[in-house]
Amino acid sequence: MSGSLAAFADLLERLLFTQGRNAKLALLRDWFASQPDPDRGIGLAAITGDLGFATAKPAMIRALVAERTDPMLFDLSYDYVGDLAETVALLWPAPEHPEPPPGLADVVAALELAPRASVPAMLADWLDRLDVSGRLALVKLVTGGLRVGASGGLARMALAEWSGRPVEEVEEAWHACLPPYLPLFDWLEGRGPRPDAAGAPVFRPLMLAHPLEEADLAAIAPETHRAEWKWDGIRVQACAGPSGRRLWSRSGEDLSAAFPEIVAAMEFSGVVDGELLVLRDGVVAPFGDLQQRLNRKIVTPRMQKEFPAAVRLYDILFDGAEDLRPLPFDARRARLEGFLATHAPARFDLSPLVPFAEVEELAVRRATARAEAIEGLMLKRADSAYVAGRVKGLWWKWKRAPLSVDCVLMYAQRGHGKRSSYYSDYTFGLWRGEELVPVGKAYSGFTDVELVWLDRWVRAHTTARFGPVREVEKALVLEVVFDAAQPSSRHRSGLAMRFPRIARIRADKPAAEADRLEVLAAMVGKG
Amino acid sequence: MTSPHPDTWMRVTPKGLFCEPAGVYIDPSRAVDRAIISHGHSDHARPGHRAVLATAETLAIMRARMGADRAGGSQQAMALGAPLDINGVTIRLVPAGHVLGSAQVVLEWRGSRIVVSGDYKRAADPTCAGFEPVPCDVFVTEATFALPVFRHPPAAGEIQRLLASIRLFPERCHVIGVYALGKAQRLIALLRQAGWERPIYLHGALIALCELYESLGVPLGPLLPVPPLQKRGKAEAGLAGEIVLAPPSADSTPWSRRLADPVSCAASGWLRVRQRAKMRGIELPLVISDHADWDELLATASDVQAPEVWITHGREDALAYALGTRGIRARALHLVGRGEDEDEALPEAAPEPAPAA
């Protein structure tokens, strides 16, 4: 398919520059609609990081370009551009009459088969045949450096929007296919059945909960609902069977490599749903401890010892090959308890039900559960099947009331995309002695009308500018709510907030009466 | 008789290049007695000279931008190619292809010839006459894009990328950041060549020069001012599917709220380097420049057959080195005040992070 690498290069470039989620979705939908197989699937896998090769080291690319350019001009150029792949793409001397460009599928197929020694010559030949964007895409592709801000979740959402299928179905089918996802596209375009994972350890989309509003409480009753703690870790799905083991995040990212001790403990065949936690002698550690383990490609034995991970189970989706998802919650719960009793895997335990006789009792338990590791309560209908996605009325999350402090606005920064003309990102601080120290940054919680007001206030009270950032008069009090306070070595105040957002603009309150840093410090561990 | 070396009659002074026997400065950075102006950009055309020589178009642009009283005590228009003698120095203006009215200044004295090219490009531009190489003893050149990473793609292809984006996002408005003199009009003319016949909407800061171009015989098609914000809610925000031209960074000001979810575009040679464009938050960078790119700079130096090249401003080291490897003596002039250019000034510095968080 000649020309499709150019189309892929164009897609990469647009994705790289596009800030807005909707615009990225539009670009991806257009890609699926306009590209042939297998190129569209290969491009998709390349973007989401699911293409399994990295055949070229930067040094090899550099050697190729060194053979073709003046070293002095290369150095001056690299110095200016600052990125090797881009410097090479821009500097590569194209022949006068190049051969037609290679197709994306041809390139990927050749790279998968090629012996290592022949890769440089192949690359040089392709680079000769491509334009600047194509060269940049190729170099990024072969060095594994595509970072265009489009996750697998976003790509699957785009597939769902493009095809009109529910995103949960797309999720499951996606995980049952490999690049270039031909059965997936066949199904989405009505030419084939939905791909089925069968026994493979694939991700099954999770069932999610709605936030509980006061008005919803009326529908909750001990006869029809079950309550359990909402642990403060990350939701995971553990899949194990004869064909392998995987630990998935709630969005379907593979966490197996980061938590080898969990994978090693998965001595069972089935799919279970729970909360990944750092657990020491049965006590759940603060979320910050778990954070030490997240976003790591490799994990040292020391990390595993210092921050021992465990999974606390809420639910069971498969027992062996038997799909339990159509069963009601109570039946699944009984199967989960039996499953744990049978297999007794290390590092897995059961999240207990919270018994209650009336709803008021739950309200008290929720308010008084001040253990750090509990975010609140989950309320689940006893007869609810396990349904992918956020179906209203089946599961509720009832988080503890957020913590709150009155802060002073210190800096404001222009937003992106639709908000690029608004100062919409706010840095705020608390008093320490006579000075304000920044404690956090928020860009949500306010209404559109409040945003217009805040933007005008920032423009009228600017005292200094640093690029897109304005420092403002220390005169506006913002009531900031957040889920937890943590010690932090990255902040000058020594404290950080989890998920801060602007609850109210307190234009009525003098800045001197805003809270002091000690107030926030006292909240550490209370979250 | 051997002709004098250009060094002996063209000097670099704090006010700029000075032709001693003619008593005239070329593109001086401060007010002088007598000046020849290559083109209307503000780092070449400064106000307050007593006598100004330039093309009729450049003089008209200067009057429009600075007001008739500041555009030169006396103004003398020179037709392209017509020689003028000042104290034995023969002076001619030759098209430079940069913006409307832009000219190279060709000076000859006692058999020695210097060409001061001002800013120039070699690519075709529907809004101005194309560059003509003139053989000379010293060629004075800019070096704005003098790195081999700067190779401007054909402008028509960039316009096609813009039109493809408009098809992909019909519910959004495309705002292109451009400089008021030259780039705006070239972009409009390129869009017309590509078949875009709809009205093109202009930020107020661009209207006067577009009108001037039209009055000087450059047709630009239907142009409209961007209408003010409708007070009745966001649904009214307008110009979905349309093209709006505005000064760079106007789309981060409240002015842009009158536009429908704008796609932020910009047209500049700097955008060839992707990380630059990313830093500026541009969603659709169009690599369109009115300056010579690397290949054009080298080709031009060879076309004019000059044994010596003087570099006024830009990235002198790379160009001087590359010319040296081709047997051409090159020298950087380090002219003051140049390159603080309004037409393709360096992009705004990287956004600084907020001091906290």
UniProtKB/TrEMBL annotation, chain A:
Q: Which GO terms describe its biological process?
A: cell division; DNA recombination; DNA repair; DNA replication
Q: Does the keyword Metal-binding feature in the UniProt annotation?
A: yes
* Domain ATP-dependent DNA ligase family profile: residue ranges: 302-432
* Database matches in InterPro entries: ATP-dep_DNA_ligase, ATP_dep_DNA_lig_pp_1105_fam, DNA_ligase_ATP-dep_C, DNA_ligase_ATP-dep_cent, DNA_ligase_ATP-dep_CS, DNA_ligase_N_sf, NA-bd_OB-fold
Keywords, ordered alphabetically: ATP-binding, Cell cycle, Cell division, DNA damage, DNA recombination, DNA repair, DNA replication, Ligase, Magnesium, Metal-binding, Nucleotide-binding
Q: What class of enzyme is it?
A: ligase
In alphabetical order, the GO MF annotations are: ATP binding; DNA binding; DNA ligase (ATP) activity; metal ion binding
- According to the lineage, what is the superkingdom? Bacteria
Q: Which reaction does it catalyse?
A: ATP + (deoxyribonucleotide)n-3'-hydroxyl + 5'-phospho-(deoxyribonucleotide)m = (deoxyribonucleotide)n+m + AMP + diphosphate
Name of this protein: DNA ligase (ATP)
Give TM regions.
none
* Database matches in PANTHER family: DNA LIGASE 1/3 FAMILY MEMBER, DNA LIGASE-RELATED
**A Pfam family that the UniProt record links to this protein:** DNA_ligase_A_M
Q: Does the keyword DNA damage apply?
A: yes
EC identifiers of the protein:
6.5.1.1
Q: What species does this protein belong to?
A: Humitalea rosea
UniProtKB/TrEMBL annotation, chain B:
Q: State the source organism's domain of life.
A: Bacteria
Lineage, uppermost ranks: Bacteria, Pseudomonadati, Pseudomonadota, Alphaproteobacteria, Acetobacterales
Q: What is this protein called?
A: Putative mRNA 3-end processing factor
Entry GO MF terms: RNA endonuclease activity
